[in-house]
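$ ./design --mode recover --in tokens.txt
reading tokens...
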């Protein structure tokens, strides 16, 4: 029991005992002669008043919480909140287990061959399934919301970043190693995070909610924690292992799936950590990045140069089919941004579903199919024109157009256009 609860219980028992004792005293004083009895009743009444006064003070008085006790209480509350969130994530992964199993099976496709159509099937299955699972995943903490101002300036920031990388490459400075180190370290942490609900579903008999490991005193003082959860340590170990394999002196053709795993974890965590906040913010972001993608792919060689020269797990790879003519880059590529940016919009439409409760068509389902249709159109254009295509050219109109069409079918156009996530949303209680 909590200290406050114990205190209240003790005060209640003490009050009940005092009342019983006073009732007995009142009964016995009535047997005295009149004057004595009257005096006795006055004394009893005074005692009763004093007793009730002190008992009420005891019942309402709260123990003073020291700063150390407050910090300890807040830490315990935070741990309970995290565990409740992990249970929600575990349940959602269990509900979507077929999707996760499909992604796992898809990683064996490169063993079948490196035919062009196999690479398209791999990218299409990986991207659509990731968008679907990322849109449905549960999170522990509320995501960071993108503001309209952020959305408006996103293409500018992205252009400066990619332009800066391009200039470094053209001037003989290769930032690949430094960039890749940062990405792989963060990727290991993402694998640790996204891997916890997967591990809990793989080993359901293990009570990971209480399975912890004690830390040595020196480390515990530095980290300000006494114990660490075993599931988080296991998945962190897997993330670090992926990082080590990625940096192993082995040709990328033999380990590109490890790069894809890191990129997938980065994408899933990003989908859960960022929220568009409002439909209009999403539309502004997609419109701006639509222009960004089209300009840098069709107007210059910047996008293709950076995509093929800067090697880091921020894209999905598939070995290119053999060719008589040598290729500068031995992989087919799907950029991580072509999954995450549209995926944020798909996830947001899931929030619209929850609030507006459409009667005819689900916004989330419509957005997922629209993403698949836009991606298929991109791959089709790539086959026809035989050159790199800006995926957002096809994805963004498909997503925004389908959302507004779905709203029209549901007779909710104005509701969708004006829709904003409330700031006081809380995760569902377990």
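writing sequence...
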């Amino acid at each position: 029991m909590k200290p406050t609860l114990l205190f209240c219980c003790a005060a209640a028992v003490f009050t009940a005992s005092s009342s019983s004792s006073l009732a007995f005293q009142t009964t016995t004083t009535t047997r005295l002669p009149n004057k004595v009895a009257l005096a006795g009743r006055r004394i009893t009444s005074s005692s009763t008043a004093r007793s009730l006064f002190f008992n009420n003070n005891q019942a309402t008085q709260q123990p003073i919480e020291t700063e150390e006790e407050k910090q300890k209480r807040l830490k315990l509350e935070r741990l309970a909140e995290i565990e409740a969130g992990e249970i929600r994530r575990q349940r959602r992964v269990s509900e979507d287990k077929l999707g996760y199993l499909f992604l796992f099976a898809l990683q064996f496709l490169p063993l079948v061959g490196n035919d062009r159509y196999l690479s398209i099937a791999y990218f299409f299955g990986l991207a659509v399934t990731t968008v679907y699972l990322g849109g449905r995943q549960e999170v522990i903490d509320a995501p960071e919301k993108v503001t309209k101002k952020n959305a408006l300036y996103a293409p500018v920031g992205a252009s400066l970043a990619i332009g800066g990388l391009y200039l470094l490459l053209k001037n003989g400075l290769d930032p690949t190693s430094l960039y890749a180190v940062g990405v792989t370290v963060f990727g290991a942490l993402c694998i640790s995070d996204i891997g916890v609900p997967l591990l809990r579903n793989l080993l359901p008999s293990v009570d990971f909610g209480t399975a912890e490991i004690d830390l040595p005193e020196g480390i515990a003082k530095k980290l300000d924690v006494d114990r660490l959860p075993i599931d988080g340590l296991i998945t962190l170990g897997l993330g670090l292992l992926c990082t080590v394999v990625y940096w192993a002196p082995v040709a990328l053709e033999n380990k590109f799936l490890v790069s894809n795993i890191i990129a997938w974890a980065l994408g899933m965590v990003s989908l859960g950590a960022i929220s568009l906040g409002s439909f209009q913010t999403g539309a502004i972001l997609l419109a701006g990045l639509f222009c960004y993608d089209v300009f840098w792919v069709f107007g210059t060689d910047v996008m293709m140069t950076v995509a093929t020269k800067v090697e880091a797990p921020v894209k999905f790879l598939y070995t290119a089919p053999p060719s008589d003519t040598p290729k500068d880059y031995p992989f087919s590529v799907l950029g991580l941004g072509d999954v995450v940016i549209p995926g944020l919009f798909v996830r947001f439409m899931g929030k619209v579903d929850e609030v507006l409760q459409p009667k005819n068509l689900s916004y989330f389902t419509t957005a997922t199919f629209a993403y698949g249709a836009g991606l298929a159109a991109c791959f089709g254009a790539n086959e026809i024109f035989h050159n790199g295509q800006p995926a957002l050219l096809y994805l963004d109109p498909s997503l925004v157009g389908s959302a507004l069409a779905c709203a029209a079918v549901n007779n909710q156009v104005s509701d969708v256009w004006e829709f904003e996530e409330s700031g006081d949303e809380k995760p569902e209680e377990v």
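exit 0
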